[in-house]
């Protein structure tokens, strides 16, 4: 499970699940680049937390929805530490609302960040990985991409699209020793779930056999496994981390 000498990029790495993934990969020995869009202070806190445990992390700000910004960021990483060996496509946003009243921009923004952003980052790292004949790409999708959810048609469409994207790229890259897999979290204790009312939380937990919300570390452990040599013969797959809410 060690990742010594590997360079990892975690998009949306400054909080929640992304933060836990950064810490997990650093504990396994990778040099971790923590991506953020606006909150540089949060990203620096993650880097400091990594350093406090004896790891190495750097921060880098860019919007995954901006292809030119992604290309520039990849060059900055390569010039500093070398090309990315492990990409974790974690960046995501929500713009919830019933479809009948959903604004076009709310649809477009969610698809641009959650789906097209993953394409930009994956495309940027793929050619160097192919040249080195080694790479790990892990995509953080969601249980909502499998079950759907009222008020989240845009988010569900993007997250479901990531699964098809994963499987297609996995077929393209497998012969070069590059794996592409998904991790699909259920309801995890993050800023996004902390705002839910107790009533809503009770309704959610009624459908979770494990009878609890997950922890960011639960998701990070699955990502750490898929990023390692141990998972080298697993590609095009999805690990569901949802306490039994969806079994697929």
Would you give an account of this structure?
The chain is α/β, with parallel strands linked by helices and 248 residues long. It has one domain: NAD(P)-binding Rossmann-like Domain (Rossmann fold, 3-Layer(aba) Sandwich), CATH 3.40.50.720. Helix content is 47%, strand content 15%. It has nine helices and seven strands. A seven-stranded parallel beta sheet has the order 3-2-1-4-5-6-7, with helices on both faces. The chain is globular. The mean pLDDT is 96.
Could you list some keywords that capture this structure?
248 residues; alpha/beta; Rossmann fold; seven-stranded parallel beta sheet
Compact summary:
The radius of gyration is 17 Å and the shape is globular. It contains 9 helices and 7 strands; from the N terminus they run βαβαβαβαβααβαααβ.
- Rg over CA atoms, rounded to whole Å, is 17 Å
CATH topology name: Rossmann fold
Give the full name of the CATH homologous superfamily: NAD(P)-binding Rossmann-like Domain
Class by helix and strand content? alpha/beta
CATH class: Alpha Beta
Helix content: 40-55%
Low-pLDDT runs of 5+ residues are none
Number of strands: 7
Instruction: Specify the biggest β-sheet.
Output: 7 strands, parallel
Level-2 CATH architecture: 3-Layer(aba) Sandwich
Give the CA-CA distance, first to last residue: 25 Å
On the 0 to 100 scale, the average pLDDT is 96
């Amino acid at each position: 499970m060690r990742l010594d000498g590997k360079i990892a990029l975690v998009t949306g790495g400054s909080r929640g699940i992304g933060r836990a993934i950064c810490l997990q990969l650093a504990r396994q020995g990778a040099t971790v680049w923590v991506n953020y869009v606006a909150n540089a202070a949060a990203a620096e806190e993650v880097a400091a937390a990594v350093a406090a445990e004896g790891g190495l992390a750097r921060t880098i700000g860019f919007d995954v929805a901006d292809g030119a910004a992604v290309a520039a960021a990849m060059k900055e990483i390569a010039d500093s530490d070398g090309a990315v060996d492990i990409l974790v496509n974690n960046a995501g946003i929500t713009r919830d609302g019933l479809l009948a009243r959903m604004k076009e921009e709310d649809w477009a923004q969610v698809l641009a960040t959650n789906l097209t952003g993953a394409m930009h980052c994956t495309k940027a790292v793929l050619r160097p990985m192919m040249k080195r004949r080694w790479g790990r790409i892990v995509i953080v999708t969601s249980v909502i991409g499998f079950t759907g959810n009222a008020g989240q048609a845009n988010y569900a469409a993007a997250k479901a699209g990531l699964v098809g994207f994963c499987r297609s790229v996995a077929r393209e890259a497998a012969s070069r020793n590059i794996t592409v897999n998904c991790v699909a979290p259920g309801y995890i204790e993050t800023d996004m779930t902390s705002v839910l009312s107790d009533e809503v939380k009770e309704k959610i937990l009624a459908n979770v056999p494990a009878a609890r919300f997950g922890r960011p570390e639960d998701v990070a452990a699955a990502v750490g496994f898929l990023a390692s040599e141990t998972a080298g013969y697993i590609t095009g797959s999805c690990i569901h981390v949802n306490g039994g809410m969806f079994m697929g």
